[in-house]
Design a protein that fits this description.
heterodimer; A: two-stranded antiparallel sheet; B: mainly alpha; Arc Repressor Mutant, subunit A; 3-stranded antiparallel sheet; 4 helices
Chain lengths: ~270, ~100
């Protein structure tokens, strides 16, 4: 029993060390044990346990060091093979990192929106055709009649030209969005407000815009009094009503440098 | 681990005999345990200071599972050099401690 226990204790040591000295150590420890009386035997066990536990990490490190030295010497002696191995490794690691970045973003990471797992995209499939965006009127009908989702929002990406006074014209990505867009995604403007119901109707009231944080800082120098200023977008005056935060909204900002009020007749919903 | 080399100075010994010899010579002040002893033996074998002995005692007195170790010439030279270094260190310390204290 005690021999088996000691053999188990020796498993703390590296296999290489055990194969050379375990048998000898067992014989030595057995002799020590037999020459010790009861209380001394317990003390002998404790001291031996502490002793082996103290030396085991050093022995593992020693083997690791020797293996490392051997590997380095082998690599240095064959520079061409080493270079080929390094290039192969670099390519493999690069490919893995790139693949992981894509998989992580597309499949693993949750969308940066509130209740992201409850979001769905609604598309329309006509007989024999591929899925496509809904028409705006279909969106309005669905929104009024659907009972299976909490709410529906419409959004579409486009581009616009900012022609603010005294500054160079700038082509920016833009997004047309319906009223509940930011509420549904859980994004609250850091300045101003989101679109109101009145602004989600045809007419002059819809000429309002919410800026992304990036464009607010770049073009308006983070001016907190920017709210209610009028800017020209593609030659049409729009009133600034809000500025989005960085973070979740920055995801939108990368593809949409400003968020435009809805155009009743134009946005294909998603 | 100088004590292990000294223990082998008068002839080959197995692990347990080395332990007993070290304990006896130091009046029990140095008590080697199996882990300490065999990691030292491994290092000394690698460095060529000790070697496994091919000669075995009388089979009637021997446990064949035991391995015996002997001091190599290099090991003896290292142990001798270490003993001289220690002697010199002790001599210098004694001389220094025997000197009267200087007033600061």
């Amino acid at each position: 029993m005690q021999d088996r226990l000691f053999r188990a204790l020796l498993r703390l040591l590296p296999e290489e060390f055990r194969s050379a000295y375990a048998r000898d150590m067992e014989t030595t420890f057995r002799t020590e044990r037999r020459s010790a009386s009861g209380r001394v035997s317990l003390s002998l066990w404790l001291l031996t346990l502490a002793d082996i536990a103290r030396h085991a990490p050093a022995e593992h490190l020693d083997i690791l060091r020797r293996d490392g030295r051997l590997a380095i010497r082998t690599l240095v002696a064959r520079p061409l093979s080493t270079a080929a191995a390094l290039v192969t490794l670099a390519i493999a690691i690069g490919a893995n990192v790139a693949m992981y970045a894509v998989v992580n973003t597309v499949l693993l990471s949750p969308l940066p929106y509130r209740d992201a797992d409850a979001l769905v995209t609604v598309r329309e499939t006509r007989s024999g055709g591929d899925p496509s965006n809904l028409g705006y009127l279909t969106f309005l009908d669905l929104k009024a009649q659907t009972r299976t989702v909490t709410t529906l929002i419409a959004a579409s990406q486009s581009t616009a030209t900012l022609t603010d006074r005294g500054q160079d014209a700038e082509r920016v990505n833009a997004m047309r969005a319906s009223r509940d867009y930011f509420t549904l995604l859980g994004v609250t403007p850091t300045l101003g407000r989101e679109f109101t119901a009145a602004e989600d109707q045809p007419g002059e009231a819809r000429r309002v815009v919410i800026l992304s944080d990036a464009i607010w800082r770049r073009r308006f120098h983070a001016d907190p009094t920017v709210i209610e200023r009028t800017i020209d977008i593609s030659g049409i005056p729009f009133r600034i009503v809000g500025v989005l935060p960085v973070g979740p909204a920055a995801i939108f900002a990368s593809s949409a440098d400003s968020h435009l009020a809805p155009h009743r007749n134009r946005p294909p919903p998603s | 681990m100088f004590q292990v080399l000294v223990a082998l100075a008068d002839g080959e010994k197995h692990g347990y005999a080395i332990m007993k010899e070290v304990a006896r010579r130091t009046d029990g002040k140095v008590a080697l345990r199996a882990g300490t002893l065999y990691t030292a033996i491994k290092r000394f074998v690698v460095d060529g200071l000790i070697a496994e002995s091919d000669e075995r005692p009388d089979p009637a007195l021997d446990d064949e599972r035991r391995r015996y170790y002997r001091l190599t010439e290099q090991g003896r030279a290292v142990a001798t050099a270490e003993a001289e270094r220690l002697t010199e260190t002790v001599a210098q310390a004694r001389m220094k401690l025997a000197m009267p204290r200087r007033k600061s």
